[in-house]
């Protein structure tokens, strides 16, 4: 599989993910009315929306880079890709188990109508799946080491915690966007943030390990076919 700029399949996947993800974000902003206890903090309190914006930038860069065969844009996209991937891994791995099994840990009022399933998939599944496919099939090997990866994960975790602290007025009746964060002690909330951040880092390490195994097998197969020729 081509891991350079100009790959039509990768460009198509990026363009499709850009379209689906963009629609999901548009629908959320245009049609979803937040309950009073969330409305004050606005739509950018949700990690889903924040991570999706970064993912859309990655998808746009990927689609254009492959369309015009720009190595520079391809490299910029690959530099941003791990950040988007970690965030979308957290979104997907946390959201769907809670959405399906532990709904009360996700929302404080499960009786409220959820967004349409198609929009739900555009927001919480398509970006992560597209990034994983792109990572395994079309990206060159990442050069960032595990220590720096962990540092980035913890930095993103701290930034999101600080962002919510700034946005949410708990004393004024505001609540955190995900119900499992609505705990009394701030230390408990910080521990939850760290656990979620470590989960994202662990998933990223697993994907890197799988990448090494799969790409090595791909390289060996390619080398064998060249020898036969």
UniProtKB/TrEMBL annotation:
Keyword Ribosomal protein carried by entry: no
Cellular compartment(s): Endomembrane system
InterPro entries attached to this UniProt entry: ADTRP_AIG1
Keywords: Membrane, Transmembrane, Transmembrane helix
UniProt membrane topology term: Multi-pass membrane protein
Residues passing through the membrane, by range: 12-29, 49-68, 80-98, 118-138, 150-168, 188-207
Descriptive protein name: FAR-17a/AIG1-like protein
Organism encoding this protein: Australozyma saopauloensis
